[in-house]
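tool_call: predict_structure(chain=1)
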Amino acid sequence: MAHNIPYLSSFVKLGAFLNNFCENRKEATTPWEGKLEGVIEKASAQNSWFTTENLKHVLRYWGSQLSEENISQWLAPYTLAGQHNPKRIAIIMAGNIPLVGFHDVLSVLFSGNIVLAKLSSNDKVLLPFLVEYLIAMDQSIKERILFTEEQVQDFDAVIATGSNNTGRYFEYYFSKYPNIIRKNRNSVAVISGKENKETLASLGEDIFRYYGLGCRSVSKLYVPEGYDFIAFFDAIRPWEAILQNHKYANNYDYNKAVYLMSEFKILDNGFLILRQDQGIASPVGTVFFEYYKDLETVKGLIKTSSNAIQCVVAQDFLPNEVAPGLTQLPPLNDYADGVDTMAFLLQLD
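tool_result:
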C-alpha cells in the first residue's frame, strides 16, 4: 500500500524534479537546477568516464522511475516493517557507472532502515546532491542517511559491490554480518541473424552506454555459425563518436595493438573490436563473440556462465530476457545479481 511507504512523497518529488530537469528545460531557472548543473559539471571533471550525456542519461532514468505508481508497484509484494527498530546498513558502492548504488539506498530507506554509505572515489558528488534534495523535502531523512569516508563501522548488515578481487576481501571482512556481496558481472546478447537494422541499432545502446563499464553492459555476443557482421557494424555506426572520449579511444587502440601483435583474428570497424572468445567479460572497446549451431546450445552456455552474467539480451528466447536497447533501463524490481535486496533487508531482526 502506497501510504505505508516511508518518504514516498519525497522520492516522488525528486523524480519529478529530475524528470523536469532532463526533459523540459533549456537553462536553469531555479536554485536546485543551477546546483544540479554544477554537480554534473563537477562529476564529469572528477571522472572523465562520466560524460554529461551519460550523467543526464542516468538522471533521466531515475526521473522516470521515481513515480508513485512505479514505487508502489515495486513494493506491493512486500510487508514493510515500519521504522520501530531500524538497522544500520553499510552500503559500499562501486564507481563504474554513475549512481550505481542509488537503488540500494532506496531499498534501505523504504525497508525502514538507516543508510551508512561509503562512496566510491569515482562517484562522490551525485548521490550527496540527491540526498540533499531529499532532506530539503523531508528533514527527517537527515537521520537516515549517513556518509563516511573511513572504514565502515558500527553497522548491522552490509551491501558491498566491487570487483572479483574486492569481492573476496568483502566476503572475508564481512563474513560475520548479514551481507549481499556483488562481484563482476557482464551481460550477453543472443543474435538470431533475423534482426532488422533498428534492433541491431538498439543493441548499440546496450554495448556502448557508459562505455561498456556497467554490469548490464553487453560484452559478449552469441551469433549463428556463418553470421555476417556487416549489418551489425552498419547499424551501430552512429556510435562512432564514442572515440571522442580519450579514455575509450586509448583502450580501443591499446587492445587492438595487443590483438594484432598476438595475431588474434579480430573484426574491427574503427571504434569497436569483435574478437572470437569463450569469455564473458571483454575489455573496453572490445566485444567478444561466439558462434553457435543451435539455440539449445546457447541456453546451455548461458546456464554454465550464469554466475558471470547479469542479463541476457534476446527476443523470444528466455523467460527473463531483456529486449535490445533496454539493459540500462531496468525496472525497480530487477535486482542486481538476481538477489532480492528488499527481501534481504526486511528479514533482518
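agent: The chain has twelve helices and eleven strands. Proceeding to next step.
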